[in-house]
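Tip: read the tokens left to right.
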């Protein structure tokens, strides 16, 4: 065990004594010896106890001094008599016998030089001396009765055990002059001042010496002097050494332009030289208590004299005297540059602060966590992620927790070491990576090193990060060619989309492709270069399935491009006469796995019917009797484990599955969705697919899936500062072990979420760091690591944590949590979780900060935290940042993924759940609370590019061309008018609601007819050009589908005619501010806001307030509506006509309205109905 920084015993007889004032030899070189364990007899001839503090008194506490002389006539033990005689004679002072409880020891008198021999009963640390030759005399004055303070900032031995005994007093300040002590022992020895507020354990005063105790973790370096951070007493400068003591080098407090000192193997000392601190600097060191044993053993930081570290004023440790300090935990304040932020497009936190304790987190009710999109495209005005090429030192990582060095680590000892901000481990800085620190304790080259100056960085991984050489990108297509697929036109759209994407596939010229089709048999295609046309090989035996010509089924695209083009050109007509209605999906997946398992890649599966042949066969299990009941969740879970087990094998082979489903009847999406969920793929469904109506949308989504930036063979791990933990992950992945996310493919659309929870009662640092690392292979065949690191400040105020909550991010995280609850239990519990989370968080905002306690008594908040008295309880308004949370919670409960009733098909619900689980924050917000635009009265500039950057926000313009949007309305039936046309967009689907009294001129511009009455709506097409109104509407629709990627999607606009039963009821699903007819959805928005403001008191509105149908109704129909409306029946038919006040801009909210407006960040926000 290395004795890095330990006081060394004198050499055994026969070795040369050190000169007075010189350094003892370091361990392992020059004859140094190891200190004996506690209680062990020293070896013969060795001076017992040299350079060590006296043994702590058991139960005495305070300062450890020799006992005073007994009064005359009082009996003195023999050991005390010999001790007093030795003190009078000078020499080495041995520890006294244990004192009685409460006895205070007096300081020793100054002594002149002189040697001494250990007397019986007075060996160091109370151990009885073994018989042996006496030790050599030690010249010089006696050593002080305390352990020497370690060097400022010297780290402890990780895992060093706490020593026995009470507190050690702080080191006495040196004389007013600096430098070495005067020769001859002329400087008197002063007893140290006694202060019950200061001091620390023997372990701290001794620099965390491990005397025969447990060693640190394997591989942990032996540290110099003490813990990563010392308490206030140990951080003070050491006193000037007395004659006969070795001088201890003290590093420059500011680390200014000090060259690195050579370090000897095993933790030798620094070179001697000028570096002693002036005594005036000692008095500026912050005071403070000591730290708990748990913090020391875990290597937590302690405030002190290192640059960038300071202790929060007034905070004392748990060992402080009663009544002298607050029971709040010790918090280590670090000098963090919070201007280094990860863009919101990559990492979105639910709150900008972390509660300091688990109790405070429970009080705040804030769901801590984040949404991460590691490969998010570059935003407008942003630079690309900077790439780091590791040098000779490789990628610098923590040797304990493997954290990547980042912008928030702390450098110590003039830059020779750095402390991990995840586990507090001290790590050596490799020599090629060394750089001096500036006056702020930061590296001078941090601006030139992206990993030290930015929150997101990408490393080029060396060979040790590769299990196998990077594989070329592979794309394999598994296509259902049954009669249903041929008749719907799906083959035509798929062939066209693949053909259009070949030139843009990533990884050219290394890209490989392959095709496989199936109905009641499996069809392979040999695409060997040089063939004039592909060769189809049919295998009808689904039990003994084999792969013919395996070398020619997955080919290089560039070499076999002509054969591939011929195949795609003939695919739509190749199976025109196919009469098979079955599809053997399971055997086809096994065959595709056999072809691609050696290389991995992306697999695209296209399925139109319920698989009923071979492995993975499914049976219809649709049961309308359990719809809308707690047992409905059975239809949302897989019917068999075959697809889950197959997906796990695919993930291990680095194969990701993107599944495209085209159901015309029940297809059991819950079972099939296991493939994309576990293999980090995506799920797309197109119910009732028709080539002319749904083809453009399918082609755009398939092209985007194939051509977007993709990371292959990826794994991701997320770490956080000790004291916190990642409790749950959400998204599409497979977990290896406990925290490693296996991602065969990770695209620019891949989104994940995680919960952040307290792992301990208190967080002992002023900042919590979250770091994610994504190791992947780029399409160019380069192994890379994208590291995202974010520092989050810690707060002890509930109001500060709640005031920094991001309502949009909380909504996205709550949706994913509720999905997990719904699948594990039932949908009722999922809706209850959403409602409860909203009510509790709003209630916490009204409660505010609870009184602080100091010495068990309530105390007012600090002056800077005191605010004017506000009304409490129900009268206190919801904070501005959370004003939209009740609206989002209500919208989630009425979303297709969670809404009750019997009108949501299981396949449709599972698809909505899958898409919501993989959505980022902006997509979740618009999917949960859609945008509804008024088109019939839009301004002349709507649909045209904006001349100037908008000042209102994202809901004023859309798309890469900044297309101006029409007026946005509230999601209530009161905003509809029979003479209007309204566009509703939720990010996936678009609905165009056309009133019965709409302007014929507008109808002619959009549909080529003056009326839609009596027209077959399946034959009506929305015109995109030919007139100004149609062109502007097409520009608006296209802009709403444009995002930050070059692969623009094409929207499908469903035309809803007023009075249509089926389509209009589905359109009414999205009008979430009206009441619905299922349990938990009977709230209108006004009712729900009152319910939330009351703290969840009272019962929700009963079913009598809800309509009898499945959609939200409007208010009662006034007499004499314009036109001949049919009679209103539940949610069907005509919404009530708008009065004149409803046809203009939305009225402003009254001052007494308790609820927030719908979510508008920019532009005119829609207001509540009057």
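Filled-in amino acids:
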């Amino acid at each position: 065990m290395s004795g890095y920084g330990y006081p060394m015993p004198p050499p055994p007889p026969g070795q040369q004594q050190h000169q007075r004032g010189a350094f003892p030899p370091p361990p392992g070189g020059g004859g140094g010896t190891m200190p004996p364990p506690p209680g062990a007899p020293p070896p013969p001839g060795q001076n017992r106890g040299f350079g060590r503090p006296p043994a702590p008194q058991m139960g005495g506490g305070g300062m450890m001094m020799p006992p005073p002389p007994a009064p005359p006539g009082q009996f003195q033990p023999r050991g005390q008599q010999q001790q007093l005689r030795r003190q009078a004679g000078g020499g080495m002072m041995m520890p006294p016998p244990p004192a009685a409880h409460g006895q205070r020891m007096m300081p020793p008198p100054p002594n002149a030089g002189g040697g001494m021999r250990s007397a019986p009963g007075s060996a160091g640390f109370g151990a009885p001396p073994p018989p042996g030759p006496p030790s050599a005399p030690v010249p010089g004055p006696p050593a002080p009765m305390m352990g020497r303070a370690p060097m400022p900032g010297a780290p402890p031995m990780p895992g060093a055990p706490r020593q026995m005994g009470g507190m050690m007093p702080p080191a006495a300040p040196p004389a007013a002059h600096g430098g070495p002590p005067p020769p001859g022992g002329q400087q008197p020895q002063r007893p140290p001042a006694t202060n019950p507020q200061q001091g620390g354990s023997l372990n701290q005063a001794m620099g965390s010496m491990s005397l025969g105790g447990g060693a640190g973790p394997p591989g942990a370096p032996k540290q110099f002097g003490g813990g990563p951070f010392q308490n206030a007493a140990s951080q003070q400068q050491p006193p000037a050494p007395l004659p006969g003591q070795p001088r201890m080098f003290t590093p420059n407090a500011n680390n200014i332009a000090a060259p690195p000192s050579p370090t000897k193997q095993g933790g030798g000392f620094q070179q001697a030289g000028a570096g002693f601190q002036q005594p005036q600097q000692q008095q500026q060191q912050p005071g403070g208590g000591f730290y708990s044993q748990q913090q020391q053993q875990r290597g937590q930081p302690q405030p002190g004299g290192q640059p960038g570290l300071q202790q929060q004023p007034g905070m004392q440790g748990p060992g402080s005297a009663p009544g002298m300090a607050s029971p709040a935990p010790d918090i280590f304040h670090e000098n963090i540059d919070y201007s280094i932020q990860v863009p919101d497009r990559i990492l979105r936190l639910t709150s900008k602060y972390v509660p300091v304790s688990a109790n405070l987190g429970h009080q705040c009710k804030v769901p801590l966590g984040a949404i991460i999109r590691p490969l998010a495209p570059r935003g407008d005005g942003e630079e690309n992620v900077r790439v780091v090429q590791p040098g000779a030192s490789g990628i610098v990582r923590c040797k304990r927790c493997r954290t990547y060095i980042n912008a928030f680590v702390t450098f110590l000892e003039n830059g020779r070491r750095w402390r991990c901000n995840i586990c507090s481990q001290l790590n050596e800085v490799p020599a090629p990576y060394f750089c001096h620190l500036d006056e702020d304790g930061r590296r001078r080259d941090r601006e030139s090193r992206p990993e030290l100056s930015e929150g997101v960085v990408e490393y080029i991984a060396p060979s040790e990060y590769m299990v196998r050489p990077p594989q070329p990108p592979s794309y394999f297509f598994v296509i259902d060619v049954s009669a249903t697929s041929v008749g719907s036109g799906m083959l035509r759209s798929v062939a066209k989309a693949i053909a259009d994407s070949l030139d843009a596939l990533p990884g050219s010229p290394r890209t490989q492709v392959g095709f496989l089709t199936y109905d009641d048999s499996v069809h392979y295609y040999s695409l060997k270069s040089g063939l004039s046309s592909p060769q189809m090989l049919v295998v009808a035996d689904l039990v003994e399935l084999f792969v013919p010509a395996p070398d020619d089924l997955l080919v290089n695209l560039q070499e076999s491009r002509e054969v591939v083009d011929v195949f795609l050109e003939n695919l739509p007509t190749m199976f025109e006469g196919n009469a098979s209605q079955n599809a053997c999906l399971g055997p086809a997946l096994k065959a595709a796995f056999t072809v691609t398992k050696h290389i991995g890649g992306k697999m695209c599966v296209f399925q139109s019917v319920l698989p009923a042949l071979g492995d993975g066969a499914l049976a219809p299990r649709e049961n309308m009797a359990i719809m809308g009941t707690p047992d409905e969740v059975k239809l949302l879970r897989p019917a068999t484990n075959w697809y889950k087990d197959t997906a796990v094998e695919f993930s291990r082979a680095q194969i990701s599955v993107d599944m495209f489903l085209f159901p015309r009847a029940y297809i059991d999406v819950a079972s099939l969705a296991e493939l994309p969920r576990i293999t980090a793929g995506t799920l797309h469904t197109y119910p009732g697919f028709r080539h002319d109506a749904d083809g453009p949308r399918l082609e755009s989504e398939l092209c985007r899936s194939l051509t977007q930036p993709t990371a292959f063979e990826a794994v991701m791990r997320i770490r956080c500062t000790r004291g916190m933990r990642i409790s749950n992950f959400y998204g599409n992945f497979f977990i290896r072990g406990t925290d490693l996310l296996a991602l065969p493919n990770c695209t620019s659309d891949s989104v994940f979420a995680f919960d952040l929870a307290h792992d301990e009662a208190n967080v002992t640092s002023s900042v919590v760091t979250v770091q994610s690392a994504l190791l992947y292979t780029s399409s160019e065949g380069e192994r890379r690591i994208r590291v995202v690191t974010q520092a989050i400040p810690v707060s002890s105020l509930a109001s500060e944590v709640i005031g920094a909550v991001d309502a949009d991010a909380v909504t996205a995280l709550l949706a994913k949590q509720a999905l997990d609850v719904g699948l594990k239990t039932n949908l009722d519990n999922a809706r209850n979780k959403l409602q409860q989370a909203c009510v509790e968080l709003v209630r916490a905002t009204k409660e505010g900060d609870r009184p602080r306690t100091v010495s068990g008594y309530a105390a007012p908040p600090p002056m800077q935290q005191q605010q004017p008295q506000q009304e409490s309880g129900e009268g206190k308004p919801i904070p501005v940042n959370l004003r939209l949370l009740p609206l989002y919670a209500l919208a989630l409960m009425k979303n297709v993924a969670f809404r009750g009733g019997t009108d949501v098909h299981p396949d449709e619900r599972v698809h909505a759940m899958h898409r919501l689980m993989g959505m980022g924050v902006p997509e979740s917000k618009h999917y949960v609370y859609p945008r509804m635009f008024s088109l019939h009265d839009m301004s002349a500039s709507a649909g045209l590019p904006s001349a100037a950057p908008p000042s209102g926000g994202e809901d004023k313009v859309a798309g890469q061309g900044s297309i101006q949007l029409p007026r946005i309305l509230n999601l209530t039936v009161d905003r509809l008018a029979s003479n209007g046309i309204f566009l509703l967009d939720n990010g996936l689907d678009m609905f165009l609601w056309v009133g019965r009294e709409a302007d014929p001129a507008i109808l002619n511009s959009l549909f080529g007819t003056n009326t839609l009455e009596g027209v077959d709506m399946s034959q009506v097409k929305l015109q995109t050009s030919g007139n100004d109104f149609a062109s502007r509407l097409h520009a608006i629709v296209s802009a709403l589908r444009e995002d930050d990627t070059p692969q623009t999607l094409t929207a499908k606009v469903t035309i809803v005619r007023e009075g249509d039963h089926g389509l209009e009821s589905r359109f009414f699903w999205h009008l979430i501010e009206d009441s619905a007819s299922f349990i938990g959805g009977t709230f209108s928005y006004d009712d729900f806001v009152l319910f939330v403001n009351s703290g969840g008191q009272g019962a929700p509105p009963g079913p009598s307030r809800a309509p009898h149908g499945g959609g939200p109704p409007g208010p009662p129909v006034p007499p004499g509506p314009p036109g001949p409306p049919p009679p209103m029946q539940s949610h069907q038919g005509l919404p009530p006509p708008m009065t004149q006040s409803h046809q203009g801009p939305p009225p402003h909210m009254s001052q007494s309205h308790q609820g927030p407006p719908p979510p508008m960040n920019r532009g005119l926000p829609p207001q509540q109905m009057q």
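The first strand starts at residue 167 and ends at 168. Residues 4 and 267 are 5 Å apart (CA to CA).
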